[in-house]
Amino acid sequence: MNESRSKSILKSLTVFIAVLGFVLGTAALSMAIELKFHHDLPEDSAQHLAAEKFKAAVESRTNGEIQVKIFPNNALGDDVEATQQMQFGALQGAIIPTAKLSNFVPALQLVDLPFLFPSPQVTHKVLDSEVGDKLLATLDKVGLKGVTFWESGFKQFTCNHPIQEPADFKGYKVRVMQSPIIMEQFKALGGNPVPIAFGETYNALQQNVVSCQENPLVSITKMKFYEVQSNLIISNHAYLGYAFVFSKLWFDGLKPEQQKILVDAAREMTDFERAETARREEGYIKTISESGTKVSKLTPEQIAKFQEATLSVHKKFASQIGQDLLDAFYQEIKKADSK
Fold first, then answer.
1. Whole-angstrom Cα distance, residue 189 to residue 96?
2. What is the pLDDT of residue 15?
3. What is the mean pLDDT of the chain?
4. What is the pLDDT of residues 195-227, one digit of tens each?
5. What crossing angle do the helices spanning 130-137 and 120-127 adopt, rounded to 10°?
6. Residue 46: pLDDT above 90?
7. Considering the entire predicted model, what is its pTM?
8. How many CA atoms lie within 13 A of 262 on its CB side?
């Protein structure tokens, strides 16, 4: 066999191997398990950054057996629609605000109770404890597998007048999300809650349809609510948590080792997501302050008055949440706050 022919055969063999590799690789990808992942936030959010890290970890640890595709900004529908899709497996994973999930499981309202958690540190300890797992387990009955809690952080008040005590809300219209527990919170403070879609809130504030609203700093900044509000009050009055959930129908069909990888990756990214959320908050306050909006903070004495005024909300929703579960949270919060 001459040298020229040998080179030709070698070249043909090389091309064949390359093509075979491509075909096999394409086949492997087509056989990969797809995990469509929903969230309602923009791509520059802490949640999206954490979701990308989750995606990288899952795809690496499963050697590409599970491929994660992230859909930010409600690309596949809003949170309620996404939850419904997960119930029958059309969507495989998501982070959903606990307030939205309470429409499916009333016990999830617990996380949204006003002045429940005294600090981020205590909040995280409690949600990562056995009582937090017990709360997540209530999602099983509606076809969801809850594994951890991410967050947008604590909510703050914004208004077109100063807020120092509960009476300062009396008679004022306040924008709220469609959540019975949040509506009741502002009724307890003497305000008039008005449910308005998140995307319509800026216009509602600008046109004085409502005078106040509540949201975490990330939402107040990204949606520029501070442009149409004269006062930001750092109240830390309620927590906006996200439950990290999988479609139970889909999850139960995976191999045990795949399930473990998914749960471990979600929980490992929890600390990063929370830290990134907190890291950004100083910048948000600076942006709001530099815009001319007045920034104030409730004192411990003022917070005590708000706690007293909203205790009726805890009592009203105790039966829906489950008194035993609520008492277990109270106990765990007290224990975590004493350390």
1. 27
2. 41
3. 92
4. 998 889 999 999 999 999 999 999 999 899 999
5. 60
6. yes
7. 0.86
8. 29
Yes or no: say if 116 and 104 are a contact pair by the CB < 8 Å rule.
no
Q: Tokens for 154?
A: 């604590």
Show the tokens assigned to 100. 């939205």
Amino acid at 58: V
List of residues 6+ apart from 336 with CB closer than 8 A:
121, 122, 125, 126, 129
Mean pLDDT for 240-261 is 98
Query: What is the token pair recorded at 114?
Result: 């006003």
Query: Could you give the C-alpha distances from 265 to 54, 204, 272, 319, in angstroms and in order?
Result: 6, 40, 11, 34
List of long-range contacts for 285-294, beta carbons under 8 Å, 24+ apart:
285/217, 285/232, 285/234, 287/221, 287/226, 288/217, 288/220, 288/221, 288/226, 288/232, 291/226, 291/227, 293/158, 293/226, 293/229, 293/230, 293/231, 293/232, 294/162, 294/230, 294/231, 294/232
